């Protein structure tokens, strides 16, 4: 299957992508992995991406699209892939359609992980990270440390990352709503969108997603 995974920050896309890709025996292709692989390998696209990133600028769509195209055409993606973080806007979605059309294939589904906005804020703003090298992760609601502000495992100080504050999370959600969420309507017009609730335990969400994808493939 060829699948695009979408959802707001905090929906658990990375976690679900890994499990779904494993269950479906297809590669998990994330934007972050694409950037890291191309930069570490010194590809022309990687050099271009690094130059923009080093200058504090967003990587242009054409560079991201080029990386994704190369990865989707790799041998291990011949029978399918799961895209996570790409496309991030309608321009990239349209470019993806053109790439797939040129290769004589098409998307099978766009899996939309739905999470209420207040839950997204709760999930992200509640995270606390240990300052030690181990960087253990806790959550004030879901995995609270025995002593407030102290890591259970090593006694290190727990802190909230700057990009995990409520104000920052809400700004990230604004960007998601304005830039990425429109691709859901774009793909809904093609009859590709499957929306599931991403609330609940990780394995429960994975089961819901797999059941929905199997129904779509039947």
The fraction of residues in strands falls at 5-15%
With helices defined by DSSP (H or I, 4 residues minimum), what is the helix count?
A: 9
What is the CATH domain class? Alpha Beta
Write the CATH homologous superfamily: P-loop containing nucleotide triphosphate hydrolases
Second CATH tier, the architecture:
3-Layer(aba) Sandwich
Question: What is the arithmetic mean of pLDDT?
Answer: 93
Distance between the termini: 12 Å
| Structural class by SSE content | alpha/beta
Residues in helix, %: 40-55%
Strand order of the largest sheet: 2-3-1-4-8
CATH topology: Rossmann fold
Describe what you observe in this structure.
The protein has helices at 13-24, 31-41, 44-54, 61-72, 90-102, 117-125, 166-180, 182-188, 202-217; strands spanning 2-6, 28-30, 81-84, 109-114, 127-130, 137-139, 158-159, 193-197. The N and C termini lie close together (12 Å). The chain has one domain: 3-Layer(aba) Sandwich (Rossmann fold), CATH 3.40.50.300. The protein has 218 residues and is α/β, with parallel strands linked by helices. The protein is built from 9 helices and 8 strands.
């Amino acid at each position: 299957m060829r699948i695009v995974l979408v959802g707001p920050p905090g929906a658990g896309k990375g976690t679900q992508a890994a499990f779904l890709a494993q269950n479906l025996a297809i590669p998990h292709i994330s934007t972050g992995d694409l950037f890291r692989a191309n930069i570490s390998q010194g590809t022309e696209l990687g050099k271009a991406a690094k130059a923009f990133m080093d200058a504090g600028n967003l990587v242009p769509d054409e560079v991201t699209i080029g990386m994704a195209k190369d990865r989707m055409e790799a041998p291990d993606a011949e029978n399918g892939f799961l895209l996570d973080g790409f496309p991030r806007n309608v321009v990239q979605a349209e470019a993806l359609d053109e790439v797939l059309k040129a290769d004589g294939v098409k998307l099978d589904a766009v899996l939309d992980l739905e999470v209420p906005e207040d839950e997204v804020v709760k999930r992200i703003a509640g995270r606390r990270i240990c300052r030690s090298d181990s960087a253990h992760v806790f959550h004030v609601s879901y995995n609270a440390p025995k002593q407030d502000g102290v890591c259970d495992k090593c006694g290190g100080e727990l802190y909230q990352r700057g990009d995990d504050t409520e104000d920052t999370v809400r700004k990230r959600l604004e960007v998601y709503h304005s830039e990425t969420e429109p691709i859901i309507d774009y793909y809904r017009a093609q009859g590709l969108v499957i929306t599931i609730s991403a609330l609940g335990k990780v394995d429960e969400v994975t089961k819901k997603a797999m059941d929905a994808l199997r129904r779509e493939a039947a």
